[in-house]
Amino acid sequence: MDHKMFVKKLIVVMAGATIYALAMNLFLIPGKIYASGFAGVAQLLYSIGKEYFDITLSTGLLLLLFNIPIVFVAWKKIGKSFTFFSFMSVATMTLALEVIPIVKVSPDVLINAIFGGIIGAIGVGITLKVGASTGGMDVIALIISMAKDKSIGTYIFIFNAGIIICAGLLYGWSQSLYTIISLYASSRVIDAIHTRHVKVTVFIVTTKPDEIASEIYSTIGRGITTLPATGAYTKENKNMLMIVLTRYELFELRQIIKKIDDRAFVNVVQSEEILGNFRKSYI
Q1: Could you give the CA distance from residue 166 to residue 141 in angstroms, rounded to a whole number?
Q2: By C-alpha distance, which of 164, 90, 175, 97 is closest to 127?
Q3: Residues with Cβ < 8 Å from 128, sequence gap 6 or more?
Q4: Could you tell me whether strands 237-246 and 199-206 are parallel, antiparallel, or unpaired per DSSP bridges?
């Protein structure tokens, strides 16, 4: 990754984290609506400490502490670039949660749930778009899914279900229902910004198959199938590369194709099920 692209990606990741922090401090935390993943756990501990023990815990600091062990695992299991930018997202979010005051924008819980979910999803979506994550449960679920070759959706759902149940037991089931509304709104917006499918198949028609394949091997580490291809109209002989990726690796692939052959034809399609060896060599 060149210097210009590195800076651009870093800016997007930090912006996404700041947007997510705005959603939490202006809508979710004041409305007692819980976010997904470790952010939701940090919110729960903040609420429990404040209301039951009269202790004000730092949501941002809790989020950072939860993610520190995840960083070490992700560095080895997923890759250095992904882990670095994901950690920068968490660090920026931690700082933003401390700097941005907690203000109740609206007394309406439904408004807090919907707008908190939507605004937070915008931050998450643009972070995913550039090949990073907001850390926490996303990283854990990704590692498990890559090792077991199963969808991360199941693991994220189970984790979030635990947050929803805890919120219901502590603060009433109406808060759980509003949390579900927020999570649903969030998922729809993320789907609109970023591909909803965990795994996708990419077909690349190019005149430079060897250069692209070599760069994919060294950067992403996925296997590639090469097929001969001929233009029906031009009769020009080309090659088609087929590769299956996780959604987190799409950004890197786009940059590789753009750098080597910006005239390549690329088709990204949904992969419902993958049979065979999809794991990386270090999983």
Answers
A1: 20
A2: 90
A3: 190, 193, 194, 247, 248
A4: antiparallel
Alpha carbon distances (Å) from 112 to 33, 83, 171: 7, 31, 16
pLDDT digits (tens, 9 = 90+) for 108-150: 989 999 999 999 989 988 888 787 778 777 777 667 666 655 5
Q: What is the DSSP string of the chain?
A: --HHHHHHHHHHHHHHHHHHHHHIIIIITTTT-PPSHHHHHHHHHHHHHHHHS-----HHHHHHHHHHHHHHHHHHHT-HHHHHHHHHHHHHHHHHHHHS------S-HHHHHHHHHHHHHHHHHHHHHTT----THHHHHHHHHHHHT--HHHHHHHHHHHHHHHHHHHH-HHHHHHHHHHHHHHHHHHHHHS-S-SEEEEEEEES-HHHHHHHHHHHT----EEEEEE-TTT--EEEEEEEEEEGGGHHHHHHHHHHH-TT-EEEEEE-S---S----TT-
Could you tell me the domains of the chain? 3-193 (no CATH), 199-270 (3.30.70.120)
Pairing of strands 199-206, 225-230: unpaired
Residue 249, C-beta contacts closer than 8 angstroms, at least 6 positions apart: 131, 220, 222
pLDDT 10s digits, 216-271: 888 777 889 999 988 888 888 889 999 988 777 787 888 899 889 988 999 998 77
Chain segment 141-187, per-residue pLDDT in tens? 667 666 655 555 556 667 778 878 887 887 778 878 888 888 888 87
Q: Which two tokens stand for residue 151?
A: 């969808």
Instruction: State how far the Cα of 255 lies from the Cα of 172, in Å rounded to an integer.
Output: 47
Q: How many CA atoms lie within 13 A of 272 on its CB side?
A: 0
